[in-house]
Amino acid sequence: MMDFIGTANPLTRASRFTQVDEVKAFPYRGDTIVQNLNFFAAIVVFSLVMDMETPPHSVILNHQPCRAQHISRSWLESSNDRESFGLTCHRWLHIQNSSRRSLQFQCSFTQLNPTSLSRPSTTINTFHLYRLLCRFPQLQSLSLSGCIELPDSGLSLLLTYGLKLESLHLDFCYGITDHGFSFIAGGCPLLTIISLYRCNVTDIGLESLSQSCSTLKDVNLSFCSLISDHGIRALSQNSRHLRSVNISYCRNVTGVGFQGCSQTLAYLEADSCKLEPEGILAIVSGGGLEYLNISKLKSCIHGYVLTTIDVGFISKLRVLNFRLWTTIGDDAIAKIAEGCPLLEEWNLDYCFEIRISGWESIGSKCRNLERLHVNRCRNLSDQGLQALRDGCRRLRKLYLGRCRLISSISIEMFKYLRSDVQIMDEAT
User: Fold this and answer.
1) Number of structural domains, the chain?
2) Mind telling me which SMART domains this protein's record contains (predicted)?
3) What is the value of pTM for the model shown?
């Protein structure tokens, strides 16, 4: 479709573009005439600039974006126009391919869940992946999430094509084992983000990955049932730039593997884990946490463990989720309220053992608190609500539902005196 051979006079030689076989190759979709003129103008501009930049009697071999690309891009208002331009001009198509930095397959659903996997989608195999990695050699982000039949051998391609990858998503890749993760370890030295939601990775694969990919920052291990404290210890010790870790529903993780973790660790999701008291102390040992979710604990931990924490380790916390920690009491709440002066959001839903002194501690100490969740706190009374009303001056949202000791009069008084606070029930 495109003549790459140069002639002496760039203004008189034949056009680089041949006649398009079908009109529908162009973006005629009921748009304005101006938009279509812009498309054709982009073709003309691209052709002229390429003519002026290419020496006579030469073949275009440069793989990098050129000035013509940037000039023409200003005339192409939509991604559809640019795709159509790529079908018209081989040179532009090659520039598009070599400029692509991210790739997501059709089966890489925006919101993955077991139900979404039932949707019909193209099965991605090793050959498909090979063709696409060859076509897009500059990829920095690759999502294979939802490729449930992709085998370990597919990831062997990353030994050649993964050198520039910084982000890799393998959610629901059931066919990938530790052998496949060894290819990631060997071929992706720049990897900083990896998501392994519901993968079959074990401690061995995680240790191999953390040893080779020392720049890891964000790691999602949620629902990885084969991971234990041994793998977490390898990750926290080998990856000293960790920023975010998700271990939700990892039932074999108690938390002790985080002991001595890097101060860069700021975000930790540990929903529905069997954390032990020593594990909670290890989780905060880095001293850099800003977000901590230890809701729905699957082990019976009394709140006294929090009273032994050095407040220096929790002073940066801004968001804290204790939902369904039914045994946490007033002493622990007082310790957190005093040790976390930056706290902005605190979820205490279903925390049954917090009584008046605990609510008074929150009211007097949590000066930056903006959002507080107290749904079904059965020992929150009118007096406790008053402590929150009078003390938390920056509070803007109070999630309050089914607290049996709070009267309707107390709620109306709260609304009257604190009109700046939006009270929301449990279902909101």
Assistant:
1) 2
2) LRR_CC
3) 0.79
